[in-house]
Amino acid sequence: MRTTYAVNQRLDRARFRELLHEVAPRFCRQYLFVVRPNLGCSESLHALLSKLQPSLRSMRRSSEWPGTQLLDGELAEVFEGELTRETADTLVQAAGGLLSFRQPDLPEDLALLRADGSPWLISCTHEGDIYLDLTEAECREILQSAPWLLSLA
């Protein structure tokens, strides 16, 4: 059984770095984000996609991804990639924090996924929402190793 926790504060660059380097690797093996064609794409978005290309596992067109379901028939490009130290560095360098992932400058809605593909961290950046979807064991481990993360919830 999992419990969803809303993160009620922004994750600035320092906390975002700690999340991607220290906390998420214990639970997550993949990242996911989307590019929505109607929101435009800047040079920085294209540069980030190019830097992440070696880690990308798939791209599919979909109207649904963790935390979002489009109802107007619009499709987005949903990218999934391997979460490594190098990809974490690239993501942190690209953004001032988790909610900085907004088009046209960066992809939208960064999510972190477990090895089975289930979402562990979900963001809906245009709405300013961040969620953690945790098992009881994950929650206990975070409380011991990174209590600041749950104190934000």
Keywords, separated by commas or semicolons:
153 residues; alpha+beta; two-stranded antiparallel sheet; 5 helices
Record field, number of beta strands: 9
The computed structural class is alpha+beta
Estimate percent helicity: 25-40%
**Rg calc:** 15 Å
The largest β sheet comes out as: 7 strands, antiparallel
Which stretches are poorly predicted, pLDDT < 50 over at least 5 residues? none
End-to-end distance = 18 Å
Element-by-element helix/strand order: EHEHEEEEHEEEHH
* Average pLDDT, all residues: 94
Order of adjacent strands in the largest pleated sheet:
1-9-8-7-2-6-3
- The best one-word shape is globular
Strand content: 25-35%
Number of helices: 5
Care to give the gist of this entry?
This protein has about 150 residues and is an alpha+beta fold.
Give your account of this protein's structure:
The longest helix is centred in the first third of the chain and has 11 residues, at 13-23. The model has no long low-confidence stretch (mean pLDDT 94). The chain has five helices and nine strands; from the N terminus they run E-H-E-H-E-E-E-E-H-E-E-E-H-H. It has helices at residues 13-23, 43-52, 85-94, 136-145, 147-151; strands spanning 2-6, 30-35, 56-62, 64-65, 68-69, 76-82, 108-113, 119-124, 129-135. The strands form two sheets. A seven-stranded antiparallel beta sheet has the order 1-9-8-7-2-6-3. It has a two-stranded antiparallel ribbon with strand order 4-5. Helix 1 packs antiparallel against helix 3 and helix 2 runs antiparallel to helix 3. It has 153 residues and is an alpha+beta fold. The two termini are 18 Å apart.
